[in-house]
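Need tokens for this chain, all 217 residues.
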Amino acid sequence: MKKLSQAIVLAGAMTAGLTAVQTAQAEISASVDIASMYLWRGQDLGLDKGTAVVSGALDYSHESGLYAGVWTSSGDSSLGNETDFYAGFAGAVGDFGYDLGYVTYIYSETAADEFDDAAEFYLGLSYSMVGITFYVPSDSDADGLYTVLGVDIPDTSFSVALGNYSDIDDEYTHLDVSYAYNDSVGFTVSKIVDEANEDSYDKSMRYVVSYSLPIEM
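Here are the structure tokens for all 217 residues:
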């Protein structure tokens, strides 16, 4: 689930995010990330709960706002190794930002092993230090909506994200607080704070440390 950011804010909960690269020309970038936990939308998806995850990304961005990339990780507890492909268009007008895109999740151990077997469209909007992103399944027959509201705390390296997933049978909300120590090291505390069906989710506090290593291209 693209993308483990420096601070693991939703593990990429703003997939390819509201801060999608805007450069003076076309650019290719890459990175390798290590995190103490595979945190995704408030849940620990690690192969064994609480175990570390290694991921890598290769991204293309153009000054027009178009971008595309691939992200792969060591996988989650039931679906196997994961590879995500994504593409979108992002830009900004003054303090207002926008990001519209598509992401498909491919897993090695399930039937979702081809493009669009498990995929979402997303729309992100931001103004100044506040952003909101909506994710809906690409399959019109599938139910579900994930919404995340993020805020950067002024004059600090802290950020807060409130995420909510809902479908016809289920709903839960999680809260993440993240701190970016520098451009490479980040810390996140996450907790599921509400659920529609009692005891459906593990509401333990999650603590994540991450390190991101850019790769020179």
